[in-house]
Amino acid sequence: MTSTGTDYFRESYLEALRSAESLSTSLPRLRPDYGPEEIQAIDQETKDRLDAFSLRFIRLQDAMGRNLFRALLGAELEDTADLTQLDLLHRMEKRGIVTGVDDWALLRRLRNLLTHEYPDDPAKQADILNEAIRSAPLLLDTLRAVGRYARERLGMSDLPETTLTLPSP
């Protein structure tokens, strides 16, 4: 483990943690069962809450998928330059960080879908939002697993633990 590798990991983790804290503040203000009619007749306040949630979900998924996972391997002195996203996910699965490649693929797919508006398809908008809201705890749990792994396996006992609480279903 190199100082540079662990420093970059720490920075990446703290960035993801900030994003997770923002996402977790959005969740209690949302429901996982918006209908197409509600999406069509949405008031500005609800639209702002849904937009904030979407942006925060995208930001956290990006921070983890693009930076944090590679930074974790870098802290373990593993060369990630030639790793495909699938290789990276398999390494995270082997470490117990992602529950499965398919679960992360779902989070990535939702991230991609959230970047589009689908203004002419409120049913699709509702389906995407509802699935993302229901899947957000998986994203937060994955970050918890990264932190736990770093504290236990990389000796980073001073790494902040996430104290995020999720709303009851």
UniProtKB/TrEMBL annotation:
Domain of life: Bacteria
Protein name (Swiss-Prot/TrEMBL): Nucleotidyltransferase
Organism of provenance: Thioalkalivibrio denitrificans
Lineage, broadest ranks: Bacteria, Pseudomonadati, Pseudomonadota, Gammaproteobacteria, Chromatiales
